[in-house]
Design brief:
The chain is of the alpha/beta class and 366 residues long. It contains 14 helices and 12 strands. The protein has a 6-stranded mixed sheet with strand order 2-4-1-5-6-7, sandwiched between helices. It has a 3-stranded mixed sheet with strand order 3-9-8, with helices on both faces. Strands 11-10-12 form a 3-stranded antiparallel sheet. Helix 7 links the parallel strand 6 and strand 7. The longest helix has 32 residues. It is flat.
Length: 366
């Protein structure tokens, strides 16, 4: 199952339109009223990577298989969601199941599209959602931390780790700051923070949904969001969901010409997917052969056996070594044979840390 990003935001900001374009389906009904999306729609999206096409060309691979990210279209949030207003409880539960938050903000003026707050102010909208998430986390930790502290004083080692890192998160939330600003002291605390599934500990990407005329350059609203995102260590991307929905319905051959006419070199969705990929600290490695060229995803810092496990669980358990070629070497030397002859194919063991773009052949026991 791919890593999943939750598409969130206030009602009527373009979440479902963006989701439909991302997945090139009409699975999510897009309509101009709150709570149009009731059950979260789920779809997987290929991560654009031109390197894969080049590897397939060199190896004359019959099939190309991209790595994927999952996206979930979640019901619109309203003020008071942390107390159950609107579909608040369902909204918060659905976010908790995701790995990152893709926060869609309305950055366009249109009298025909209702705004739940009565005015277009994307920074205020972002603060509304963030406040609701912080309130939900605050309520959760104010119940959990005292119990953990009590267990810690009784000698429970796990409780001591959790009490330390979640206590730090609680203090941040009380100061009006998200839990993602928590600084775990070691891997144990980092793991405890992740297992706590705090809503504001998840990484955030702000997607500025602009009108068609601003798709290439953005507007005053998207500029304000970019400043706000930079101040909190988040990313931001400019997209016109209406354009992306239109492009998604076109024949592949017509897309480039249409985008060029709008001053765009690629779809905004490609930027969204790549930005989400980066946000999650992911990298891509490849397996290449005559049957298929395939991209795989692991987190930054993963070692060779973990990469092998992405291909098949038994490969991690029975890992022997990985024959590895850097992407640039593979292309420059025209494939595996050339890389081997030039001494650029390396035999790596269990401690090898995978690099983005590695072309790998896993050797494993029977």
């Amino acid at each position: 199952m791919p890593i999943r990003c939750g598409i969130v935001g206030l009602p009527n900001v373009g979440k479902s339109t963006l989701f439909n374009a991302l997945t090139q389906t009409a699975a999510a009904q897009a309509a101009n009223y709150p709570f149009c999306t009731i059950e979260p729609n789920v779809g997987n999206v290929a991560v654009p990577d031109p390197r894969l096409q080049e590897l397939a060309r060199i190896a004359t691979s019959q099939k190309i298989i991209e790595t994927q990210l999952g996206f979930t279209d979640i019901a619109g949030l309203v003020r008071g969601a942390s107390s159950g207003e609107g579909l608040g409880n369902q909204f918060l539960a659905n976010i908790r199941e995701t790995d990152a938050i893709v926060h869609v903000l309305r950055c366009f003026e249109d009298d025909d599209v209702t705004h739940v707050e009565g005015k277009v102010d994307p920074v205020a909208d972002a603060e509304t959602v963030e406040t609701e998430l912080m309130l939900a986390d605050l309520e959760s930790l104010e119940k959990r931390v005292p119990a953990l502290v009590k267990k810690a004083t009784q000698g429970d080692k796990d409780a001591k780790v959790q009490a330390a890192v979640l206590g730090q998160a609680l203090e941040l939330l009380r100061a009006g700051k998200p839990a993602r600003m928590t600084e775990p002291r070691d891997e144990e605390e980092a793991r405890a923070l992740k297992l706590a599934q705090l809503l504001t500990a998840k990484p955030v990407l702000y997607v500025c949904n602009v009108e068609e005329a601003s798709a290439a350059t953005g507007n005053a609203h998207s500029e304000a969001v970019a400043r706000m995102a930079a101040s909190v260590g988040a990313g931001s991307v400019i997209v016109s969901a209406a354009i992306e929905a239109e492009v998604a319905m076109m024949e592949p051959g017509d897309r480039a010409e249409y985008l060029e006419s709008l001053g765009l070199h690629e779809t905004g969705l490609a930027r969204v997917v790549r930005a989400a990929y980066s946000l999650l600290g992911l990298l891509t490695f490849f397996t290449v052969g005559p049957k298929e060229a395939r991209a795989w995803t692991v987190t930054v810092g993963s070692k060779a056996p973990q990469a092998a496990g992405e291909i098949h669980g038994d490969f991690e358990k029975k890992f022997i070594r990985a024959e590895t070629i850097a992407y640039d070497d593979y292309v420059r030397l025209n494939g595996e044979s050339g890389a081997r002859e030039a001494g650029r194919l390396r035999s790596e063991g269990k401690d090898y840390v995978v690099h983005d773009g590695d072309v790998m052949h896993i050797l494993h026991g029977a």
